[in-house]
User: What shape does this take?
Amino acid sequence: MRVILASLLTLAAALAQTPQERGKRLIDQTLAALGGDRFLAMQDRAESGRAYSFYHEKLSGLSLATIYTRYVKRPDPPLPGTLWVRERQSFGKNERSGAVLFTGEKGYQISFRGARPLPPETLDRYQDSMLHNIFYILRQRLGEPGLSFDYQDADRIDNRIVDVVDVSDADNRTVRVYLDRFTRLPVRQFFVRRDPKTRDRFEEVTIFSKYRDAGGGVQWPFDIQRLRNDEKIYEIYADSVQIDQGLSQSLFVLPPGIEILPPLK
Assistant: This one.
């Protein structure tokens, strides 16, 4: 009877909350499940494993990959629409032979020939994806003016019950996040992107699974899949995820004296 009474009281309290209050409460629980203050204090991360690319659901590429991430100190409150992160994606056994570097407002394809600026549409897509990423939102965007969390409903995905929360910002970006009812960890996110030229609609889905401790109690998904309009386009299986390794600043800037190549036409 005590268990039943406690469940009823919990249900009554949940029903008394507004969608915004319940959404914020669930997001707070998710942040705690990811590591709480330790997650918020994370400075850098290195993810190493196998990366797969797909075209029309068929494997089109396979490579060893290491993704280096550094979080930049943000103002308080954060400025909407600004990225406070640097990222380097290295591919192959020799990381110097090929990498993609994102420095916030710029991006480069690095090879033995030099550094070639990424096309504007590629950089825009990366920036838009990062601003919609639930892990980036929780690490760098909490407290941003206009950021809201709205509870939508419960659902079932892959035989698990999830709670659905919409995260929206002042620029009308919205990402729908699916949180495991029992662990509170994100298992999926969804947002809609439109091509700035053609206005074509792209439904972007990311699936998170195989959470493990990446250090100090921070939970991170070791299997990440991305789908576009229901077709798988990318997946990474991480063999190792390490946080706060004191990554060198040189990873996130162009090498001194490197030749800047003309952009691709």
About this structure: The chain has a mean pLDDT of 91. The domain at 20-252 is CATH 2.50.20.10 (outer membrane lipoprotein receptor (LolB), chain A). The radius of gyration is 20 Å.
